[in-house]
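Subject: for your reference before the review

Hello V.,

The reviewers asked for a structural picture of the protein, and I figured it would be easier to keep everything in one thread rather than splitting it across files. Below is the amino acid sequence we used in the manuscript, unchanged from the supplementary table.
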Amino acid sequence: HILLTEMHPLIGDAWSLRVLMKGVERACMGYAAQPAETEYTEFAVWQRQTADAEAIRHLRGQWLDQLANWKAPAIPVSEKDLYSEGNEQWKMAVTAMTLGSEETRPLRDFCEQQGLDISCCLLACVFVLLYVFSGEGDQLINISDDGRDDASLATAAGLFETEVPLRKIVE
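And here is what came back from the structure prediction:
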């Protein structure tokens, strides 16, 4: 058997796909479905009820201030443009790797000496590399948080993700 699925990024994430696949696996093995401790709709209602309108306006204002005057670099707008002649600088590759404690020890030591969190140090490295490779000093990147800090959300499918745009001017 082959199961082909597609999940639009607005309604699902990798975590939700794992929850779905675990449910499919259980069904294929003849087990009954396990309901999630908290359903996404319950979470959405709770989130809306607890949201402070003034705090949301304040945060929105902060984002608008942070992103004011940011000019996006000219990039190809379609996959055809991306791979067309003359756009070699936009060709991409992805490489996944795992670094052990031996390889990361110098970086962790440096961060400790500087009083930095390792994730902040790595983020600074990303900004520097973007500057080196692109020549763009005004950079905007996106960081995602899975938004599943509550253990009852571990078995729920749904987009709990929070997107955080970060802007940095590298000189």
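For the response letter, the relevant points are probably these. The first strand starts at residue 138 and ends at 145. The first helix runs from residue 14 to 28.

Happy to draft the paragraph if you're swamped.

O.
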